[in-house]
Design brief:
The protein is mainly alpha-helical. It folds into three domains: about 55 residues; about 100 residues, Type II secretion system (T2SS), domain F (Receptor-associated Protein), CATH 1.20.81.30; about 230 residues, Type II secretion system (T2SS), domain F (Receptor-associated Protein). The chain has 16 helices and three strands. Strands 2-1-3 form a three-stranded antiparallel β-sheet, covered by helices on one side. Helix 7 packs antiparallel against helix 8 and helix 8 packs parallel to helix 16. The longest helix is centred in the middle third of the chain and has 58 residues.
Length: about 400
């Protein structure tokens, strides 16, 4: 925070000199006037230490992406600063300076400017929907309306940290299988692009009829040798086309419907959305939101159009006075455990606690299934890799056996 040197006169006519920290020069002037001083001069202090700090900040490059870790850092540290009695503007300033994301730092500074102009924090972050989801917006609205923003931000930080830890576990578990997959693809490409063409020239010089397997492999090798650039370009093009199209509403609806039908992985993806649904509902209800508003925000935050449609229907029924558990059981997509536990929560008035237990259960089940899948994937990849390389080696040696039998 900048420091300002000032010279003022008090009510007795005495001249005073001092320096204080303030967010801006305007705030410093306003503060001195409130204290009854007549301002003679005021200027920002430029110390060598500040210059060195500024030079250091210029050298320190921040990335221009906003990751889950950045948002987790924001929620936790903003909650801590507010709990310590620091003002919201000062808290945003501190968090923005400490953020590793240059983009988030810029957004937080803009949010501070909006708040100075009279907007609330919820209204300020609502201007950046690509960074702050409806889930964030709902949490902050509840915190501001209840006057307990630090508490709900801590709740949000707990949830984001849990998600971050789970994603870190999955990434760590997938490292070895990914390395195996890349090694297998690279080995096949090297065989087809460099090794088989050399053997092809050798076998053609002997003028013998090659086994069917060898002929097929050589044909594939020639295709790869002459078209490898086209193959990679086609794969890269397909990836970029899919990445751009998958966000279109009509394409996303198709993907969201078929994604649960993918063998093996479909069940895990389904569990991810169930866990996300129960966790978000728990956080929102624990923060003090009404059930209808919670369902509306969860529908917008869950990220799947199938669940979104079902949750909006459920919110509409609850708004009309219906039962959430009854609606969840009628929709068909929600597991029996969710609807039955919802019924218990409605009867006992402990919906937040019930959804906390359900979300913990699905998080454990999801972790267990992912770990089992990864554990099974490793030996399967080794076997597939061995069979693939074995077929290629056999295709090479079959003509050699034939040549040896002919006495060549």
């Amino acid at each position: 925070m900048p420091r300002f040197n000032y010279k003022v006169k008090n009510k007795s006519g005495d001249t005073l000199k001092d320096s204080q920290e303030a967010i801006s020069k305007a705030e410093m002037i306003s503060r001195l006037r409130r204290e009854g001083y007549f301002i003679i001069s005021i200027s920002e202090e430029k110390s060598k230490k500040k210059k060195r700090s500024s030079l250091f900040k210029k050298k320190q490059k921040k990335r221009q992406s906003v990751k889950l870790a950045d948002l987790t850092f924001l929620a936790r540290n903003l909650a801590t600063t507010l709990s310590s009695g620091i003002t919201l503007l000062r808290g945003l300033e501190l968090v923005s300076y400490q953020s590793q994301s240059g983009k988030l730092e810029s957004i937080l500074k803009e949010c501070s400017a909006h708040i100075r102009d009279g907007l609330s924090l919820a209204e300020a972050i609502a201007k950046y929907p690509k960074i702050f989801s409806q889930f964030w917006l709902g949490i902050v609205k509840v915190g501001e309306s209840s006057g307990n923003l630090p508490f709900v931000l801590n709740q949000l930080a707990d949830y984001l940290e849990m998600r971050m830890e789970f994603e870190r576990k999955i990434q760590s578990a997938l490292v070895y299988p990914v390395i195996l997959s890349v090694a297998a693809v690279a080995a096949v490409f090297v065989f087809l692009k460099f090794i088989f063409p050399k053997f092809g020239e050798l076998f053609e010089s002997f003028d013998i009829e090659l086994p069917a397997l060898t002929q097929w492999i050589f044909s594939l090798s020639k295709f790869v040798e002459h078209n490898w650039f086209i193959i990679f370009a086609a794969l890269a093009g397909a990836y970029f086309v899919f990445r751009n199209l998958r966000h279109r509403p009509e394409v996303k609806k198709i993907i969201d419907r078929i994604i649960f039908k993918i063998p093996i992985f479909g069940n895990i993806i389904f569990l991810i959305y169930i866990e996300r649904f129960t966790s978000i509902v728990h956080i929102m209800l624990e923060s003090g939101l009404t059930l209808v508003y919670t369902l509306d925000i969860t529908a917008d935050s869950i990220g799947n159009t199938v669940f979104q449609k079902k949750l909006r229907l459920a919110a509409e029924k609850v708004r009309e006075g219906g039962s959430l558990s009854e609606q969840l059981s009628q929709e068909g997509i929600f597991p029996l455990l969710v609807s039955e536990m919802s019924k218990i929560g409605e009867e006992t008035g402990t919906m937040p606690d019930v959804f906390k237990k359900v979300s913990d259960y699905y998080l454990k089940e999801l972790s267990s299934k992912v770990e089992s899948l990864v554990a099974a994937f490793e030996p399967i990849m080794i076997v597939v890799m061995g069979i693939t390389i074995g077929i290629l080696v056999i295709a090479l040696f079959l003509p050699l056996f034939k040549l040896s039998s002919l006495g060549v």
